[in-house]
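Here comes just one.
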Amino acid sequence: MTTQKQDTPRGKYVKRVMNFLVLILSAIMIAWISVDTFDRVNLLESHGYMTFQFWVCIVFIIDFVVELYFSGDKAHFFRYHIIFLILSIPYLNIINQLGLHLSDDALYFIRFIPMARAALALAIVISYLSSNAITSMFVSYLVILVFVGYFCSLIFYQREAGVNPEIHSYWTAAWWTAMNLTTVGCYINPVTVAGKIVAIILPITGMIIFPLFTVYLTNFVTRNIAHPKDKQ
């Protein structure tokens, strides 16, 4: 997914089709991993999910190649979008094929790599609906913040439920996530390795993104005071 426009109708059409396919697959993947997490299903042992996420990653890679092919400046596109290609690699399937043995916590985090690619795709598309560059950036970061919080809450619930006596339901994990994401903190202490890693990721994410909201709100108020009739 990219914000770069195409000069030819054919390029625009192909990109729109690929973008639509990526969005549909991203939504299905997020829904699948959510339902199975709530049902306490181990996706790493699910042949259906492993096959599905493999083909989703293949589509993500094809989307990147298509974007690169129709890009006017291929070197520039590759440099600034290489993260999309890295996040599109089906690492879990590669690990299984090579017979590598990693810890359950490591595999669980690796499982979320395609989810990060899906979240970025959704963030970019939603930002298209914004009226200007500043609002677009704000919306993108807001979407990323929401997805980071949601994915971390799923990880925390999956790894801590049944082990941590303080985690009674997903909503307890979601509340813990929100408190740590806002850097307020929570009385619940993680007891698993994955939970402790998430406890580090959340406040760092919050400290990076929340100041950007302050900048946006300051810009918004300043522009409305200077030009009260302008629409955002």
Notes: Residues 1-6 have pLDDT under 50 and may be disordered.
